[in-house]
Structures are given as structure tokens and as C-alpha cells.
């Protein structure tokens, strides 16, 4: 990846991040929206803490850039991107709970249950999840009904039993019975990869892409989703907590099975390079229009935090 390409990617990522954070700030205000009776201030504060606490906003970026590939409406893509970030943030709020991963810090700040309490964290997560589907279903997301239904169905699958929450269940089970390599890949594809895959497929749905291109974007999402988790596991071994904004070395301390621990750091780096190459091959038919999505694959595999 060239310096100029990386710079353009970083600038675009920052622009997309600013757009989605502005929208999320508006959506998560204390002011009740149409059909709502009221918004409890403490609940809203906990929700905002779980969402507006930094982060790369990579999933929203992938929604918007994938949609742009097909000339889709930017505002509709932005609202779907905000909905996805609500689901992602809900998952982090709940994963940090003592009953799950039991983390005290997230992005350099206290986790929601530490800043507020466990009940507030549970309710904040519940509210973010349900709000995400309301955002997509709303007529303000200016897509035809068929596209909105397709997005809701795809997000429900990605975030549910066969996706993210199922992956978290497998992750908890792995504390007692270590999975083999195939099991680790399945777990990671569900817990981490499913929402990233959805982000890329969502752009194709928003852009009314044909079935072949929708599948191509979904496969690209699967490749970079696995790369994201591999890079995360690698950083848990090689990075320090100040760079990560959360505790590191937890996987090794807990005896958790990862592909890094099963193989080696060098093996993991080779796998990451292979996944980037796979992602670039999948995007090749789109030519230069997909340059930023190619850069995103490199960013994910080479990130330092």
C-alpha cells in the first residue's frame, strides 16, 4: 500500500467516523423521538458512554464504502452504518460484563458497568440492540421496503444465534473445553467476523447490487473479518495496554486457545498476508473504485491497536 493510498484511506476513515459520530450523537440525545414516551437520562448516558467513547468506526466505514461502490445514497448508508455501530457497541458493553469477559477498561476508559453499574450496562446494551433495528426500519432510512427488510434479516442473522452471540457462547464454552483449529476459526467467524461480513454485504444491499456482487462483498467481509481477529490475537501477544486502551495478555493468562498460541507469531503474520491477498482478489473486478476497501484490508491486518 502506497503512502498516498494510506493517507487517503486515513482521511476518508476520519471523515466517515466524524459523520457517523455526529449522527449517533443526535440519535442518542435525551430528546424522545416519535413514538417514544420518554428517555431516562441515566440510561441514555450509559448508552452514550458505550457508543461515543472512541473507536475506529471500521464497521460503519465498511458499510459506507461498500455502498459507495454501487453508487448508493450516502444518507441511507450512513443510517445503516449508525445502526450497525449500535449493535457492535451493545456487544462490547455486554461482553465486558463480569459474567462474560469481565473487563474494566475499554478504549482507555472505564467500561459501562464500571462507570455506572451492571444493571445499567445490561439495559444500555438491550436498548442499543433494539434501537438499531428501529433505525433501519424507519422511513427516514430512505430505501425501498425490500432493501430494509433484507438489511434487517441479514443483521439479525449476523448478530444472533448463528453469528455474534452464538460466537460469544462458543467463546465462553472454550474456557472449559479448548477448541481445535477448526473450532477456533468457526468461533471467530461468528463472534467477530459476522458483523464485519454484514457491514460489507449491507453496502451491496443498499446499492441494489446483483446476487453475484453481493456474495463477492460478503466473502470480502469474511476474509477481513478473520484478519481482524487474527490481528487482535496477535496484538494481545505483542502490544502493550497503553496502545490498546484495554488489558493485553489476557488470552495467554487465561490459557485461551487462539491461532497465535496454536501456531506462532510468524505463522499468524503469513496468514494475515494471505487474507489481504484474498481480499484484494475479491475486489479486483471493481478496479480502482475499490481502492479504499483494499486499503481497509491492509489497515486491518497491519494495525497497531
Can you characterise this structure?
The chain is an all-alpha fold and 305 residues long. It has one domain (3-302): Farnesyl Diphosphate Synthase, CATH 1.10.600.10. The chain has 15 helices and 2 strands. A two-stranded antiparallel ribbon has the order 1-2. Strand 1 (105-106) and strand 2 form a beta hairpin. The longest helix is centred in the C-terminal third of the chain and has 28 residues, at 211-238. The chain is globular and about 55 Å long. The model is unreliable at 1-5 (pLDDT under 50).
Order of secondary-structure elements: HHHHEEHHHHHHHHHHH
Strand element count: 2
| Chain-averaged pLDDT | 93
User: For the record, what is the CATH homologous superfamily label?
Assistant: Farnesyl Diphosphate Synthase
Question: What's the architecture in CATH terms?
Answer: Orthogonal Bundle
- Extract low-pLDDT stretches: 1-5
Q: Rg from C-alpha positions?
A: 19 Å
Q: Decide which structural class fits the backbone.
A: mainly alpha
Cross-sheet strand order for the largest sheet: 1-2
Put simply, the count of helices is: 15
Cα distance spanning the termini: 19 Å
Task: Specify the helix fraction band.
Answer: over 70%
The CATH class, by name, is Mainly Alpha
CATH-defined topology: Farnesyl Diphosphate Synthase
- How is the main sheet built? 2 strands, antiparallel
The dominant shape is: globular
Keywords: Isoprene biosynthesis, Magnesium, Metal-binding, Transferase
GO biological process, one term: terpenoid biosynthetic process
InterPro entries: Isoprenoid_synthase_dom_sf, Polyprenyl_synt, Polyprenyl_synt_CS, Prenyl_diphosphate_synthase
Cofactor: Mg(2+)
